[in-house]
Amino acid sequence: MPNINYDYIENYLRKLKDIKDEKLRDMNDYAEKNHVPIIERESEEFINFLISMQKPKKILELGTAIGYSSISFAKRNKSIEKIDSVELKKEMAEIARKNISDIGLEKIIEVHESDAYDFLVDLDEKYDLIFIDAAKGQYEKYFDLALKNLKEEGIIICDNVLFKGMVAEDSLVKRRKITIVKRLRKFLKDISEDDRFISSVVPIGDGILLVRRKDEED
């Protein structure tokens, strides 16, 4: 469990929303057994709620892993016409493609095997929603570059920004994670002070950052 909420609260919330889809349940079990990091259950529910309100047609996801989050988003939100998902590791990309094919979503979800930053450099498409869940120490680089690909009224969602509580509390920081924590703290501070954006850090799961551009009247 991340050090964001009390364990009993997280356990309660997860019991409220059991995974009903058999394929997603199998993927969740696989991730737990093989120590593959996928989206926290309560974060999954929260983001799916946001998607149901915003109704994005095109989504960019940085960090596919085994394809769990993109499959969850596409299955539960009929507004989604296309998800481009970027994964660096060949093994993970292959597993994700198989999971996506098995569930019949290969026409909606496309997995691109690439470094997320390199992929963004040459990307000229526009997206309604960008979900960043790749290398945590590179979030600010990804965010800055991905802005050119975000539609004017689009939103960017960054997962794991509290990084098991380490970003908020020095006593939790592990020595090998110091650089990542410093970069995440800088990123969150820079975003919160940037007058171009409205942002909010939501302390559920492992911490979610929501960002959108300010309207002229904001």
UniProtKB/TrEMBL annotation:
Segments forming a coiled coil: none
Highest taxon, organism lineage: Bacteria
Enzyme's top EC category: transferase
UniProt KW Isomerase keyword: no
Gene Ontology BP terms: tRNA methylation
Reaction(s) the record says it catalyses: 5-hydroxyuridine(34) in tRNA + S-adenosyl-L-methionine = 5-methoxyuridine(34) in tRNA + S-adenosyl-L-homocysteine + H(+)
Residues engaged in binding S-adenosyl-L-methionine: 39, 69, 87, 115-116, 133
Entry-linked CDD domains: AdoMet_MTases
Amino acids binding Mg(2+): 133, 159-160
Record's function text: Catalyzes the methylation of 5-hydroxyuridine (ho5U) to form 5-methoxyuridine (mo5U) at position 34 in tRNAs.
Quaternary structure and interacting proteins, as annotated: Homodimer.
Homology family: Belongs to the class I-like SAM-binding methyltransferase superfamily. Cation-dependent O-methyltransferase family.
Name of the protein: tRNA 5-hydroxyuridine methyltransferase
Originating organism: Peptoniphilus faecalis
